[in-house]
Design goal:
It is a single chain. With 95 residues, the protein is α+β, with helices and mostly antiparallel strands. The chain is 54% helix and 16% strand. It is built from 4 helices and 4 strands; from the N terminus they run E-E-E-E-H-H-H-H. The radius of gyration is 17 Å and the shape is flat. The mean pLDDT is 94.
């Protein structure tokens, strides 16, 4: 999880992500507890109050467009990962 500007493990324990077609393990992720979610919400509120809400709309737009470009540029990779995790055809994941 990315909370308060850094990657952190959730305190809910590890969970395996499997390919449903082969049952091969894809990765292991940590899970969040209510405490983890509360901490993430508090961090998001602080970021909004101190930075995001004070930022001009044009600057916020630059950040959002940058994120959109990154997602677009890695779209094929994200579609493959989604297909492996969910078992959907790549054409459906890509669309």
């Amino acid at each position: 999880m990315f909370v308060d500007g850094r990657f952190v493990d959730g305190s809910g324990g590890a969970r395996s992500v499997l390919n449903p077609a082969t049952t091969d393990g894809l990765t292991t992720v940590s899970t969040a507890t209510h405490t983890d979610v509360d901490a993430a919400v508090r961090a998001a509120r602080r970021a909004y109050d101190k930075v995001w809400s004070r930022m001009p709309g044009t600057e916020r737009a630059r950040y959002l467009f940058r994120i959109a470009r990154l997602v677009r540029d890695r779209g094929h990779e994200l579609a493959v990962l989604h297909s492996l995790e969910s078992g959907t055809p790549i054409t459906q994941s890509r669309d």
